[in-house]
Amino acid sequence: MTERPTLAVTVGDPVGIGPEITVRTLAEVGAGAPARGVVVADPAVLRRAAGVCGLDVRVRAVDGWDLPAEQDGVIDCFDIRELGEAELPWGRVDARAGAAAVRAIEVATRAAMDRHVAGIVTGPINKEAIWAAGSEHLGHTEMLGALTGVTRQNTMFVVRGKKIFFATRHVSLRRALDQVSADQQVACIEEALTALRVFGHDSPRLAVAAINPHGGENGAFGDEEIEHLAPAVERARATGADVTGPVPADSVFHQLLQDRYDGVLSQYHDQGHIAAKTFDFDGTISVTVGLPILRTSVDHGTAFDIAGQGVADPGTMTSAFLHGAEFARFADRIRAEYGG
After folding, report:
1. Which domain holds residue 222?
2. Phi and psi torsions of 207, nearest 5°
3. How far apart are CA 67 and CA 269, in angstroms?
4. Which residues have a Cβ under 8 Å from the Cβ of 268 and sit 6 or more positions away?
5. In this structure, is residue 281 part of a structural domain?
6. 3-class DSSP assignment, residue 82
7. 64: exposed, middle or buried (Cβ count in 10 Å: 0-12, 13-18, 19+)
8. 289 CB-contact burial (10 Å; exposed 0-12 / middle 13-18 / buried 19+)
9. What pLDDT was estimated at residue 103?
10. Helices (H), strands (E): how many in the chain?
């Protein structure tokens, strides 16, 4: 990759807060940022967002990745020509907005696959809107998998340099517990260790979070640790991996922050989300691992209730962009490991 990478930035749903936090982020980081951000959207969407945010910036439309010189106060926008000058109502599910969100993801992903950009940074989409537009995907991750030909991806949270992985994600807690097995844990441990290596930890240290209070208290509070988690950790350690656990969840994330580990394998969605977002909500970002391209993302929704008011906090988008700039140096590792 070039010394100063280019990142394709999608705003997500154009009638959510995505356009606002995107223009605020790029206006704030400016032309001297560690990466160049090019927004993939209709330019009118960005101009409207800049207006509601009261930003004195100019949106410059481009139609290719051989870009003109950057200028302070100018936001470059790769024109997807989906909405044109249409102004859709803020904060409402709209198939037209969903179509624009999908189109932007397709364009940005293709640019990354073709190595025109070092990676993509994504804003929040609305699932109802993309479904109304005809998308058959459950969300961003599934769409990116289809676009890149990958059938298995995982989420890596990054907060203050620490990584959190998830053994289960968007299922009920009851179903999450049903999915736990020793083989499943071994696979998740291997995926987490691989991701840590890809993202710069040459000798990764991973902790496996327990499920039950006090780690099950030797079976008094549950036997998942005895039946599944501890055997999986032992199998991983037998290969020479630096894996610890199961560690009670009320202490493992504190230990992560104390630098005992480089990452934690969380057992279910909220176990890891609550820890990360309580510690630093705006600083927590999501990286999709398993794709042959770099993808960082905000980890919040479209916030339709405040869209168009110019009050949305851009902190998570700024963090996602800056992490994208930092992780761009691993783009070749990502391609080599995940098949790009």
Report:
1. 157-274
2. -110, 140
3. 40
4. 166, 167, 168, 173, 176, 177, 211
5. no
6. coil
7. exposed
8. buried
9. 97
10. 13, 12
pLDDT at 168: 92
Q: CB 36: neighbour CB atoms within 10 A?
A: 20
| CA distance readout (Å), 167 to 20, 244, 258 | 33, 15, 23
**Is 69 inside any structural domain?**
yes
Q: Find, among 252, 232, 249, the residue nearest to 190 by Cα.
A: 232
Of residues 99, 84, 196, 188, the one with CA closest to residue 143? 99
Q: How far is C-alpha 30 from the geometric centre of its chain's CA atoms?
A: 22
- Asked which of 274, 306, 329 is the last residue of a domain, the reply is 274
Q: What is the pLDDT of residue 23?
A: 98
Give CA–CA dist 35/296, Å, rounded. 13
Same domain, yes or no, for 11 and 143?
Answer: yes
- pTM value is 0.92
36 to 5, 65, 91, 96, 295: CA distances (angstroms) = 6, 12, 29, 28, 15
Domain membership of residue 279 (yes or no) is no
Residue bearing tokens 């998998």: 145
| Contact criterion met (CB below 8 Å) for 148 and 292 | yes
Are 11 and 141 contained in the same domain?
Answer: yes
Kindly report the CATH number assigned to the domain that includes residue 263: 3.40.718.10
Closest CA to 129 of 183, 89, 81, 80: 89
Average pLDDT along the chain, 340 residues, taken 10 residues at a time: 84 97 95 94 98 97 92 95 95 97 97 97 96 90 92 90 92 91 96 97 97 84 90 97 96 96 96 93 92 94 96 95 96 89
Q: How far apart are CA 99 and CA 134, in angstroms?
A: 8
Two tokens, residue 248? 């009670």
